[in-house]
Design a protein that fits this description.
Elements: H1 5-9, H2 21-24, H3 29-36, E1 42-45, H4 52-63, E2 66-71, H5 77-90, E3 98-103, H6 110-115, H7 117-121, E4 126-131, H8 135-138, H9 141-145, E5 148-151, H10 157-169, E6 175-176, H11 178-188, H12 192-205, E7 208-209, H13 211-218, H14 230-244, H15 248-260, H16 265-280, H17 286-301, H18 306-319, H19 325-339, H20 355-360, H21 370-377, H22 400-403
Helix pairs in contact: 10-11, 10-12, 11-12, 11-13, 12-13, 14-15, 15-18, 16-17, 16-18, 17-18
Length: about 425
């Protein structure tokens, strides 16, 4: 059977491997381990097409190890035990290192992950797991503590270009023009496998690969985005931070990524409602009104038209004046409840419900409209509102970034609320 282009291009040595210089370059930690002939159990964490499986195979090949390849999707504990037992018996006389590679290791349940603990601890196997998910969330702590975690990066454009060039060398009668090449590089989103598969489709369509040929081969450009994975959270994080940084262009870029990937528009709108209060607050109160209206409109209209509503609101929030006075004020008040005895509510602020309350002094001496008395008399009315032990406490600082450092956490109110 004819090998796929992916297999034909798979590097045979570490020197042929493209990308991940921080791991396999001359000073890379994995290259040093391989050179010294000593390898530790590890988790290779990175996006699709970054070379996790290939790197694991090359490690096993360079060490001359017995390499067992498993998948986290369809393995059960009984199967794992049989496979490991059989491999240990095979390697008994050769005394070769047994490397167990598990693709998508995050799909193993806790019991399956626990199975490997004594095997690693006693040095019976070296475990190499590959995952696109954050190991800190998906791998049990005991297993994680026995493995080194190495982060692989999406490939750079130049690295993808080099891989495509190597692929074309296998088809000497084919040519690709600059526009098609650039489109293919952009389409791959740093995923070598995606680039190679698209190239393989294109060479089967035409010897002269132009932009139309590439588009025909891939049909539609997709965005690498897992709604339950790191890219989901990373994109949302970049979206929020771009609004916080007052950059509407970056805001639209990350919004477009989420829209293109099919993110739920209601979730995007809800996050903007939170942002309007958390990062803008009273510096521009209309932000919360617009964000809330956006949420309602998105629910009523739906996609694709709702994309315009999201874009309008997101750019407004990005360009709005910012203040964290409300956020820090609430945090300070909540902190008091955890660290300080909140004290008794002053009697004149308590609700008078019956005769006993009246005799105890509830609500007595309370000035209902302090602002009105001050307006009519022109005199300042001093009425306490906080409990006795918090009399001088200030939580809400309007010009937070201007006044907070000056007063060591305390500041008098001032006009305006912008930061």
């Amino acid at each position: 059977m004819t090998q796929s282009l992916t297999e034909r291009l798979r590097p045979k040595t570490l020197n042929e491997f493209i990308g991940q210089e921080h791991l396999i370059g001359e000073k890379g930690v994995i290259r040093k381990m391989v050179k010294e002939g000593k390898i530790v159990s590890m988790i290779l964490w990175g996006p699709p097409g970054s070379g996790k499986t290939t790197l694991a195979r090359l490690i096993g090949q360079h060490l001359g190890a017995d390499f067992v390849s498993l998948s986290g999707i369809n393995q059960i504990t009984a199967d794992l035990k049989k496979i490991i037992k059989r491999q240990k018996e095979t390697s008994l006389f050769s005394k070769k290192t047994i490397i167990v590679f598990i693709d998508e290791i995050h799909r193993l349940n806790k019991t399956q992950q626990t199975f490997f603990l004594p095997l690693i601890e006693e040095g019976e196997i070296v475990l190499i797991g590959a995952t696109t998910e954050n190991p800190g969330f998906e791998i049990i702590p005991p297993l994680l503590s026995r493995c080194q975690v190495y982060k692989l990066r999406s490939l750079e454009d130049q690295e993808i270009k080099k891989i495509i060039s190597q692929g074309l060398q296998l088809f000497p009668d084919h040519q690709i023009d600059k526009r098609a090449l650039q489109f293919l590089i952009s389409f791959s989103c740093g995923d070598a496998r995606k680039a190679i598969n698209a190239l393989e489709l294109a060479v089967n369509l035409s010897r002269k690969i132009d932009l139309e040929t590439i588009k025909k081969a891939i049909q539609i450009k997709t965005i690498s985005y897992d709604k339950n994975g790191d890219l989901h959270y990373d994109t949302f994080s970049a979206f929020i931070k771009s609004m916080r940084g007052c950059n509407p262009d970056a805001t639209l870029h990350y919004l477009a990524r989420m829209i293109k990937a099919g993110e739920d528009p209601v979730i995007i709108a809800r996050r903007m409602v939170i942002f309007a209060s958390e990062d803008i607050g009273n510096a521009q109160p209309t932000a919360l009104i617009l964000a809330t209206t956006c949420l309602e409109a998105v629910q009523m209209i739906g996609m694709p038209e709702a994309a315009l509503i999201l874009a309008q609101t997101a750019t407004y929030l990005a360009c709005a004046q910012k203040s964290i006075a409300v956020t820090t004020g609430l945090q300070e008040a909540l902190k008091d409840l955890e660290t300080i005895n909140p004290g008794s509510i002053p009697l004149h602020l308590r609700n008078q419900k019956n005769l006993l309350d009246q005799q105890l002094g509830f609500d007595q001496g309370h000035i209902r409209y302090q602002w009105l008395i001050e307006k009519l008399t022109g005199k300042k009315v001093n009425q306490e509102y906080l409990p006795e032990n918090l009399r001088d406490k200030i939580c809400y600082i309007k010009d937070w970034d201007e006044n907070y450092p000056k007063k060591d956490g305390q500041s008098s109110s001032s006009s305006g609320d912008n930061s």
